[in-house]
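User: Predict the structure for this protein chain, please.
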Amino acid sequence: MTPATSTTKAAEPTELRWDPDNVPPFPAIALKALKLMSGTDTSLLELCDLIRPDPAFSTAVLRIANSPLVAFSKNVTSVIQASMLLGFQRLRRLVITVGLKAYLTDSFSPVMKSCWRHSVACAIIAERSATWSSLDKEFAYAAGILHDIGRVALAAVMCEQYALVIERAAGHPRDLLQTERELCGIDHCQAGRSLVAAWNLPEAFLEITACHHAPEVHLQGTASLLPPSCELADALEFAVVRCLSSRTYVEILAEFPERARKRFPGEAKDLAAEIANEIKVMESV
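Assistant: Here is the predicted structure, written as structure tokens:
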């Protein structure tokens, strides 16, 4: 990848600045989990067999299975036992979340930590709203985790440039994508889409990564939950670029389906505390 320079001049062609093949690969187990969209017994065993030989993922699964986040009535002592108790959907969610954390571990800088917290907060909000709206909660969670993968990659491979992006965009979130293009040669939505394609993930994730900041694109079904989930995560102070939200908690909730917005806590601080507690458990593994 050709190093990007800090300039406000027009960016060079994207292909000269961005190569998804030069981005560190996402953990293979997490990629496999993202591709397994159905919860059959075969899929559960396949996922379990992937986890068992990997010490990092095995340890993480066992620690979370024995944490207050899950609260089983007895100690879980093996990955097989955890798999059977959790079931495919919860195990898949766990592996995807641990995968993102593992992806960030080598450089868990303040920027990366902010990316992690924003992604998990967005995933939790999207999953809850999907559950309350009778939509696909597993896809909603996975999409929340993955929607900002382009930003994570830019921050990893262009750390100095992306630190400058955050500095310049603070207080001006509407200018974020343009600032990314000026300083990195590509914005995080374009970068995310190219990674999803390079990693051969399901096509549904292409739209999520590319369009979650595009109000002119009207996402449908479960995908429609991602833009308001992303905005709400920012408003609850799980933002990568720090700025005051231009809309209130109630105004953002109005973007969710009616059945979902009635189920969210009445106070933003209560929802923020619930999400922060869940993130804290995930960070401890």
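The chain has two domains: 26-103, 107-285.
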